[in-house]
Backbone:
């Protein structure tokens, strides 16, 4: 019997590729051949992606604020649609799974046209624009949160809650007990923000840490993601405050750093929320302001409602207020330990398995 093939289509950023990678790892264990369709950004985020072939497919966003370039963008989407269709004819996938981002549009539109079983996976608590366009055409809509906003009424029956798959590296770092924290010992603080968040934290965290009471400040060991151009400045500010800081633009061992942390300060992108839940760590969540559809705010609110996080809008976090938020949490070890347990209750470590089951069920029904 020939090996079945599934094509995964995703925008080329970590938020889209990481859950796609987790599904690819799970399907590969079930002897499914994986192809990936994405854009040029995969060179930065997709080096570990377990696909036998990767196809770069033309795509473009559909922005109403820039109508002058709409014809050019529609042409790119059409070219991507035609290319995806020809690749489907060549490689004969048994299913196509989309993970959002406009690069997923051409493959999923072509799958619909070719009557290939298809699924979209939504990482956020609000249905993304690409997935909303595809919702009426696919067999199933897999979601990471309960009660995802923006699902068209006629597609509501196709919604299946699977959770947001996390990579094997994250699962390997799970199941660790919350690190011992008392009122005198060291405090491990992890700060990261992704490409759109690191600048804010580089500006806000050093003065906030410096404003903490001295007895609390000297206990802190901080690991922080910084843009390369901010590294020297941030390091100098921490040194002036007497803080030991481990700074880098990117950490390959992020799941293990998360596991070692007593408290995380981060944005509330879907992958961050999923990983915090699987590893089980409390977090101060600062949603990216002005994000499309306020998806990060909705993600953060879901995590906070479960008791695992504390939502603070960026606009309110001046250094003095930020220091107060940190002090209030860091001086309550038992509350942080309880929040860590509640973070675990929000996590779905079996999400990749559940999504893989949905893919195989969808293939079998059509």
Residues:
């Amino acid at each position: 019997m020939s090996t079945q093939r599934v094509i995964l289509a995703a925008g080329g950023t970590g938020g889209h590729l990481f859950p796609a990678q987790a599904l690819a790892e799970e399907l590969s264990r079930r002897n499914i051949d994986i192809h990936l369709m994405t854009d040029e950004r995969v060179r930065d985020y997709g080096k570990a992606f377990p696909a036998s072939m990767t196809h770069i497919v033309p795509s473009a966003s559909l922005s109403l604020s820039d109508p002058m370039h709409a014809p050019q963008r529609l042409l790119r989407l059409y070219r991507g649609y035609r290319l995806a269709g020809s690749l489907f004819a060549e490689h004969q996938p048994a299913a196509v799974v989309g993970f959002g981002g406009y690069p997923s549009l051409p493959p999923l539109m072509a799958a619909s046209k070719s009557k290939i079983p298809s699924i979209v996976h939504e990482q956020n608590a609000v249905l993304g624009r690409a997935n909303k366009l595809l919702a009426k055409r696919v067999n199933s809509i897999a979601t990471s949160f309960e009660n995802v906003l923006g699902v068209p009424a006629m597609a509501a029956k196709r919604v299946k809650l699977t959770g947001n798959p996390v990579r094997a590296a994250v699962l390997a770092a799970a199941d660790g007990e919350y690190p011992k924290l008392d009122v005198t010992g060291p405090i491990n603080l992890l700060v990261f923000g992704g490409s759109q968040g690191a600048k804010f934290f580089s500006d806000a965290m050093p003065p906030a840490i410096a404003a903490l009471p001295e007895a609390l400040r000297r206990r802190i060991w901080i690991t922080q993601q910084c843009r390369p151009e901010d590294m020297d400045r941030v390091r100098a500010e921490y040194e002036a405050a007497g803080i030991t800081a481990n700074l880098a633009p990117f950490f390959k061992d992020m799941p293990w750093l998360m596991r070692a942390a007593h408290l995380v300060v981060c944005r509330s992108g879907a992958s961050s929320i999923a990983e915090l839940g699987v590893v089980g760590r409390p977090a101060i969540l600062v949603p990216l302001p002005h994000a499309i559809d306020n998806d990060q705010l909705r993600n953060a609110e879901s995590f906070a409602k479960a008791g695992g996080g504390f939502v603070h809008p960026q606009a309110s976090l001046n250094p003095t207020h930020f220091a107060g938020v940190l002090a209030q949490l860091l001086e309550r070890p038992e509350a942080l330990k309880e929040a860590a347990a509640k973070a675990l209750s929000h996590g779905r470590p079996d999400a990749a398995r559940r999504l893989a089951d949905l893919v195989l069920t969808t293939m079998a029904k059509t």
Observations:
- The two ends are 19 Å apart (CA to CA).
